[in-house]
Specification:
By secondary structure, this protein is of the alpha+beta class. Helices cover about 15% and strands about 15% of the residues. It has helices at about 5-15, 15-20, 65-100, 105-115; strands spanning about 260-265, 270-275, 280-290, 295-300, 310-315, 325-330, 330-335, 345-350.
């Protein structure tokens, strides 16, 4: 066994037995100042043992953890930047919508732009207003107004003088309309008078529900179909065709130049013939001379030939004469069946095709 130092043996003898046996430090016995035992001079004091210092633990992260942390911080900053940008854009859009709905210009701003309550002069200043602008009160333009797009009016339109290059209107009420150029209308309804100074050209059909009065001439290049009654004070036609019954309540008066007439051999010596009328009707006068006999009295040639063989009706006027006719599309001849005595005779004729 190892030898125990003397100092250790002295310290251990002062400890209780149980402390010596268990190895635990001996409890400290407290004494008053008077009772406190004086230190033994012969026993040197054991040097005090200083406690062991605590080890400080330092955490040193790895490179991977450092990169992960930086990535997380960058993501948080990016999210914050996106949120801030979205909020700023939302505020700008709201401000833009507010600006569209309402634009307020102060008097100072208007004066700086050359716009005031006084008449606007040519200041060379342009005022531009964005879309969706509402004027809640009356707007007065001191000069011309030019609109690049469409003009939509929800109320009435009133103008002392208006000029339109192309006007399309669904329903238009006009008290007075003066048109200097062409007018093209799909359907034109007039509730009152229509006064036309110049010519009127109508290419399609025209339907008149009421009376049509024409104070001057009416020239119709095509056909005229009248479903009712045609009343005319003076009716002239180069060619008149009736597909049904033609009823004339007054006289039938024929007009035209007289056809040509010549004497036949039956008028005798110094006998003459004359005619008055036209191709449709008239009178042939025969003045029989000495030695008149039977046969051809007069030859009549029409001014215009008929299309087909006409019907010729001869009636003696006054003195009886036994006469008959021959006819062609170019004229007719009057014959005497018996010898005629000298003197004057007249024959009325009517020609129809």
């Amino acid at each position: 066994m190892e030898a125990i130092p003397r100092e250790k043996q002295q310290v251990d003898t002062n400890k209780p037995e149980d402390a010596q046996q268990s190895g635990a430090p001996a409890p400290e016995v407290l004494h008053t100042q008077d009772e406190a035992p004086a230190p033994s001079p012969s026993t040197p004091s054991e040097p005090s043992k200083s406690p062991k210092p605590r080890l400080r633990t330092t955490y040193r992260p790895s490179h991977k953890a450092t990169f992960i942390g930086l990535a997380v911080v960058a993501g948080v900053l990016a999210i914050n930047g996106a949120v801030i940008t979205w909020l700023m854009n939302a505020q700008q859009n709201a401000a833009a919508e507010t600006a569209k709905e309402s634009v307020t210009l102060s008097a100072k701003t208007l004066n700086s732009l050359g716009v005031s309550r006084n008449p606007v002069g040519n200041l060379g200043t342009e005022l531009t207003i964005g879309p969706q602008t509402t004027f809640n009160n009356k707007v007065t333009m001191g000069s011309d107004l030019t609109i690049g797009g469409k003009l939509q009016l929800k109320g009435d339109f009133s103008a002392n003088s208006a000029s339109f290059a192309n006007l399309k209107a669904g329903e238009t009420a006009l008290e007075k309309l003066t048109v200097n150029g062409d007018v093209t209308a799909t359907t034109l309804n007039l509730r009152k008078d229509l006064n036309v100074v110049g010519n009127v050209k109508i290419q399609g059909s025209v339907t008149m529900a009421q009376l049509l009065t024409i104070n001057n001439n009416l020239n119709v290049a095509g056909n005229v179909s009248i479903g009712g009654t045609l009343s005319a004070r003076n009716f002239q036609a180069n060619s008149l065709t009736s597909g049904s019954t033609l009823t004339i309540g007054g006289h039938i008066i024929t007009r035209g130049s007289a056809p040509a007439v010549g004497p036949g051999g039956a008028v005798g010596n110094n006998g003459t013939v004359s005619i008055s009328g036209n191709d449709a009707s008239g009178t042939v006068a025969v003045n029989a001379g000495t030695g008149a006999g039977n046969g051809l009295l007069a030859q009549v040639a029409f001014r215009s030939q008929y299309g087909t063989m006409p019907h010729v009706l001869i009636t003696p006027v006054g003195r009886y004469a036994d006469v008959y006719v021959t006819r062609s599309i170019g004229g007719f001849n009057i014959y005497s069946s018996s010898a005629m005595s000298s003197g004057g005779y007249a024959f009325d004729y009517i020609v129809m095709q």
